[in-house]
TrEMBL record:
The keyword Transmembrane applies. It comes from the Bacteria. Residues 5-132 form the Glycosyltransferase 2-like domain. PANTHER family: GLYCOSYLTRANSFERASE (PTHR43685), GLYCOSYLTRANSFERASE 2-LIKE DOMAIN-CONTAINING PROTEIN (PTHR43685:SF2). It comes from Siphonobacter curvatus. The chain crosses the membrane at residues 239-258, 264-281, 293-312. This is Glycosyltransferase. InterPro entries: Glyco_trans_2-like, Glycosyltransf_2, Nucleotide-diphossugar_trans. Keywords: Membrane, Transferase, Transmembrane, Transmembrane helix.
Length: 336
């Protein structure tokens, strides 16, 4: 039996899949297979998978669209490894990725793990700015993938996560196909007593979106997903999750502040300016680029407002609906 099965759901991304498979072909650990699941794409990737048959132990499956969570389940049902590693198709990995994972899951006796993401030197300034906004502790970066919850346990995210076959067998995989399916899965696994951890060295380069319009739609979806997680586990909604929504309401209240109480408006403008400067200089320090730093300020606003609006709209729906309602979604582009 192979040590690892790498599960990659694909939806209309053959070019990105080719780049990820090229990375996997250079891994220093070779005891793995790749399972590609084409989830009802209009732009198929079979030719890409077939082109790597001599470089990788790869299997390609095509199925009707059911969303990323169930596509991952489909792949894990057909996988042969002791461990299932789930990667988004728009990811890149270093040659030592599997070597690091192999070492750390044994050293720490893990049942599931997650890794962080970062930007690649080849990324465009917009991609680097988006990556900054999605990983910075001054935004929702800590909330989304790097921070532990209040109880001190790490919840792996599906863009870069792994789980043992035993975890798969006892959980049954993803309960829903999107709208926070990865966090719901992680919570379920942890409630069964499985051991989880972040492996900082097992990072990926995550391309994310390449323009702010698509990024806004993605983050609005993430805000909605946070509320959907609450439908399953109400006690997981923490005060920190309200931060983007509070920021959005505060931002939209500026005209009202100007009309009602001008000193409050002036104070808010100063606070917002201070926040923008903090983001600008922090990104400049990290990226060594004034262009990326400037774009990072824009990316943070897109991220916070997109997430905040999604959180507020889905939260309002949640308050008015019968308890026990779950939003699993229809056919959609993957919001990786």
């Amino acid at each position: 039996m192979r040590r690892f099965s790498i599960i990659i759901p694909v939806y209309n991304r053959p070019d990105e899949l080719a780049e990820l498979l090229a990375c996997l072909a250079r891994q220093t650990v070779r005891n793995f297979e790749v399972v590609v699941v084409e989830d009802g794409s209009g732009i198929r990737s079979e030719h890409v998978a077939r082109s790597f048959e001599t470089a990788l132990d790869i299997r390609y499956y095509e199925k009707p669209n059911s969303g990323q969570g169930f596509a991952r389940n489909y792949g894990m049902e057909r996988a042969a490894g002791d461990w299932f590693i789930i990667l988004d198709s728009d990811a890149l990995v270093e040659p030592q990725y599997l070597e690091i994972v192999n070492r750390e899951i044994d050293r720490q006796q893990l049942d599931l793990y997650g890794g962080p993401d970062r930007d690649h030197p080849s990324f465009t300034p917009v991609q680097k700015a988006i990556s900054y906004s999605m990983t910075s502790l001054f935004t929702t970066g800590g909330i989304r993938g790097k921070a532990k919850n209040a109880g001190g346990t790490f919840h792996p995210r599906s863009f870069n996560m792994g789980l043992s076959r035993q975890v798969w067998e006892q959980t049954g995989g993803f309960r829903i196909t999107r709208m926070g399916e990865d966090i719901i899965f992680s919570i379920q696994a942890l409630k069964l007593g499985f051991r989880s951890a972040l492996i900082p060295e097992a990072f990926i380069y995550h391309k994310r979106r390449t323009d702010f319009g698509a990024f806004f739609r993605q983050l609005r979806f993430f805000g909605r997903a946070r509320i959907n997680i609450t439908r399953f586990f109400p006690d997981t909604l923490k005060l920190v999750h309200f931060f983007p929504a509070a920021f959005t309401v505060w931002l939209f209240s500026f005209p009202l502040q100007l009309l009602i109480f001008k000193p409050l408006f002036q104070l808010s403008v100063l606070a917002l300016l201070a926040y923008c400067l903090m983001i600008f200089f922090d990104s400049w320090k990290q990226n060594q680029s004034i262009t990326v730093a400037s774009l990072s300020v824009q990316a943070v606003f897109v991220q916070m407002v997109g997430y905040g609006l999604g959180f507020l709209s889905e939260g309002w729906k949640y308050l008015r609906e019968p308890k026990g309602t779950v939003q699993t979604g229809e056919r959609v582009e993957y919001p990786s």
